[in-house]
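INFO batch 0412 | record 1 of 1 | parsing
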Amino acid sequence: MATEESYPEDLRYHPEHDWARIEGDQATFGITWYAQDSLGDVVFFDPPEVGATIAKDEPYTEVESVKAVSDVISPLSGEILEVNDEAGTNPELINTDPYGQGWMVKVKLTDTSEVEALLDADGYRELIAEYITPRKCSGFAVRFPRTVGCYWTGTL
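INFO prediction complete | emitting tokens
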């Protein structure tokens, strides 16, 4: 697992716990520290196909952890230029280095104006602060924002 909670200032964040590192008309995507911590140990990542078109707010792949299989939501629209095959082979990188070696895809953006809708690091911290207040559920704390009974049904 990643050793320390962090939300780098140079990234933009999607409310579904995905990040984007913007570099002109290209971006690198991954899941946030909060997402990987909530999932637990990631045991499988199946990278999408290079050349695939992805849409903002839609799933583009899945990650499987010891707790759940979760969709990974695209923070922006574009065409996949590169996938992190190393994370496919060693999915624990998503836990140990979510903003570095644990990146998922590199994308050529089709609408750079979508970036303005993403959160900065302070906005993302405010968002997750709402989730961290535990709710009681059959004697244990539930940290997740979307629950049915005691089971999380949200996406990443």
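INFO post-check: The helical segments are 33-39, 85-89, 93-96, 121-132.
INFO record closed
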